[in-house]
Design brief:
It is found in: Cytoplasm. The protein has 359 residues and is of the alpha/beta class. The chain contains 15 helices and nine strands. The chain has a single domain, classed as Alpha-Beta Barrel (TIM Barrel). β2 and β3 (98-100) form a beta hairpin.
């Protein structure tokens, strides 16, 4: 883990420092669109078999880096490891999303909830150490967690949801119960991310994937406030004193950009519905920005992929002091052709270098 970084462009961009190109990584870059991932998952026997094995997690984390010259790796895991460690019974049925055997929907279940012993998540921290060793300084490693509100969505709904009826009913009818869930989640997430940093994560990302489903007012009270608690408890430097950048990504959160920036993250992730140039004008030099290509562009052929990548880079504008990490506006689709990712990474690197030469 002491190997010097051969490519630190991602970390530099997160801290708004100059880079010779715009770094790029992709949410879900290790996943089902890669045949090698599917082969490893078949050997593991199940998604949970894959995610709970440090050896398999290391293998699939590195797979996209063998194919594409990406500028960061992200820990292969799942956002629901924390509530699983709380004893809610996480499972993944074939062809379906995550499901909890014991959802948290009444006073008794909420009262029984507690911050889990981080030793139950040792497999995650062991994976971080294993991946760092395997990377040997090639690129930085990103750790992550779901946000307190996003975790609560799954914990209350029991699975994914189209309308978030159960958690929104709790929010309006029994806000006291939801606030208790969120307080426990915030403490657990902070401990979880800090343990990832101790294990060797060089940046961390908070996925507030469902914060954007909330009404204005509810977002601030039930999502933003608990993201703030996590950031306040988060280690911002590693044991060597190096800054560990923190990325906050709220899908559908573009209208609250200034409020998210006020929490003090190093980077704000944007989905594809927010104009990158307008976002930069709104936050100035307070934070770096990450994003924000529509993942569906990757199905449109190489010419369109390259043109849209250039458009995103051009909208951010002249990099000057840096501050842009290129990414998709959400996770990559499992049906994405890998050759589209090759074209995307190549165009981001080549066009961003051309932009720098022109300024």
């Amino acid at each position: 883990m002491s190997a010097p970084l051969l490519n630190d462009s991602f970390l530099r961009a997160c801290l708004r420092q100059p880079t010779d190109h715009t770094p790029v990584w992709l949410m879900r870059q290790a996943g089902r669109y890669l045949p090698e991932y599917n082969a490893t998952r078949a050997r593991a026997g199940s998604f949970m078999g894959l995610a709970t094995s440090p050896a398999y997690a290391t293998e699939v984390t590195l797979q996209p880096l063998e194919r594409f010259p990406l500028d960061a790796a992200i820990l292969f895991s799942d956002i629901l490891t924390v509530p699983d460690a709380m004893g809610l019974g996480l499972s993944f049925a074939v062809g379906e999303g995550p499901r909890f055997a014991s959802p948290v929907r009444d006073e008794a279940a909420v009262a029984a909830l507690a911050v889990p012993d981080m030793d139950k998540l040792r497999y995650v921290f062991d994976a971080v150490r294993s991946i760092r060793q395997a990377l040997a300084g090639r690129v930085p490693l990103i750790g992550f967690s779901g946000s307190p509100f996003t975790l609560a969505c799954y914990m209350v709904e029991g699975s994914g949801s189209d309308d978030y009826r159960r958690i929104k009913t709790m929010l309006y009818a029994r806000p006291d119960l939801l606030h208790r869930i969120l307080a426990i989640n915030a403490e657990a997430v902070a401990q979880y991310l800090n343990a990832q940093i101790d294990a060797g994560a060089q940046a961390v990302m908070l996925f507030d994937s469902w914060g954007g489903v909330l009404a204005d007012g509810a977002f601030q009270a039930f999502s933003l406030a608990y993201t703030a608690r996590v950031l306040q408890a988060l280690k911002r430097h590693d044991e060597q004193g190096r800054r560990v950048p923190c990325i906050v990504f709220t899908k559908g959160g573009g209208q609250w950009l200034e409020q998210i920036a006020a929490l003090g993250p190093d980077v704000i992730g944007l989905d594809w519905t927010t104009d990158l140039g307008a976002a930069r004008a709104r936050v100035g030099d307070r934070v770096a920005l990450q994003g924000n290509l529509d993942p569906m562009v990757l199905f449109a052929g190489e010419a369109a992929v390259r043109a849209e990548a250039r458009r995103v880079l051009d909208r951010f504008g002249a990099p000057a002091g840096g501050g842009h990490v290129f990414n998709l506006g959400h996770g990559i689709s499992q049906h994405t052709p890998p050759e589209a990712v090759s074209a995307l990474v190549d165009e981001v690197h080549s066009h961003s270098r051309a932009l720098r030469r022109a300024t």
